[in-house]
């Protein structure tokens, strides 16, 4: 079977002989620039973007940007709304194999979007052809510097993981700069010098890293490098006044290369192989803190995409944390205690599935100061995403660091009620009970912390901060020294709720919370004991 954009594939698809030799500068074939190659979503010929001016520099070759931003630009290009193209490089030397793989198939790759839309399973295949260049900046530093001063360049988009936007001292030696923010600082400086600080030559920077105020964070690190390297104050002012570091929030599950069995089935169906194949869910959201006029430069909403230009990211971030992430954190400990392994499996559980939906609808949504119908629609979309039959999201992965996650994602919802002198709703107390019971652990011989399921027949490892695990395990061990009773459980729960190191506040005095949480845990214990006696 042929690889994507191999010479014979081009010949077969285009009805003409095609040479797929690499053009020395950018790693994309001249053939694809002339006549393209593959079928797009609508069955027409899909041309590579090599003939379009490079208006976007993309730092990040991974699955997320290829299933999110690049797919969005493809949608704009398909509708004639965006005439530019993208040059993609990797943020770290370790990314060279993937960059080389993209260049080897002329920057083209297949994206399969699959999941649920309005309750119906969908599967769509598209060829993404937005890359004009794919090159390694560590071996082709000159090309990166050429792009830095290109008059057509308007945007820099990145996804380098949260660790990528970090300051690590680095000397300016004339060799390629290792860090992403360092490279960006040097790129901007070369542009500043080329155009003598012209106001209209600044860039729009769109970091997609999952950091709060990610644009501000990137700007601050860039300026730190500029100060280290002795760049002039006039450059600093140019960066601040004529370059836009936009804060944004991204949301899409990009699942990457599928399992080998599925991939091979698709390759057999399509008649070609694509080692750069990636998959994604249908849902997508991008909230960008900027004026709507930028839509003229990046027409994402005109293309029908779920993108918002906004003056305030807080509503988007808060609803995601409280609803989507909050539901995940409610589900994970409870599901694992009940022997449930995956998110979709929990939604199908006879009691937990209904309970998590009711928790969000009746207990979480009323605490948020936003339009109720919009929140309800968002919650419905969240549960449709959770039910995606093509994603097996492990609760054990979600449960990692659940103490800090609960503090960020669910505790503010509990506090909404407690601070008004009201009892925390029963389903939220159930979520807290699940968390504390999940963390009733003991240290194993290998140093890990292990708990047991409610039925007592299964075990699980808890991954969290070592000091917090030792604190919680110690409190539960102390409670286990006496005869088991509801009072003993309540004493342990009250002591756990008083730990400011866990919650950031003392929760032990919240109305009836300790008593009700302990009662739920004691009921589980009594049921497990009864089951053991019957056995």
Descriptive overview:
The protein has 22 helices and 20 strands. Helix 7 links the parallel strand 9 and strand 10. Helices cover 45% and strands 15% of the residues. The model is unreliable at 7-27 and 29-45 (pLDDT under 50). The protein has a six-stranded parallel β-sheet. A four-stranded mixed β-sheet has the order 7-6-15-13. The chain has a three-stranded mixed β-sheet with strand order 12-16-17, with no helix packed on it.
| Bulk shape | globular
Overall radius of gyration: 27 Å
Bin the strand percentage: 5-15%
Tell me the helix content: 40-55%
Summed up:
The chain contains 22 helices and 20 strands. With 535 residues, the protein is α/β, with parallel strands linked by helices.
Question: What attributes does this structure have?
Answer:
535 residues, alpha/beta, 20 strands
SSE inventory with pairings:
Blueprint: E1 2-3, H1 7-14, H2 30-35, E2 38-39, E3 45-46, E4 54-59, H3 63-67, H4 69-78, E5 85-89, H5 96-104, E6 109-117, E7 120-128, E8 131-134, H6 141-148, E9 155-158, H7 180-194, E10 204-207, H8 214-228, H9 233-242, E11 244-245, E12 248-251, E13 254-256, H10 260-270, E14 272-273, E15 278-280, E16 285-289, E17 307-310, H11 314-337, H12 343-347, H13 352-364, H14 372-386, H15 395-398, H16 402-409, H17 411-418, H18 426-438, E18 442-443, E19 449-452, E20 459-462, H19 466-479, H20 486-497, H21 500-503, H22 513-534
Parallel strand pairs: 1-14, 4-5, 4-9, 5-8, 6-15, 9-10, 10-11, 16-17
Antiparallel strand pairs: 2-3, 6-7, 12-16, 13-15, 18-19, 19-20
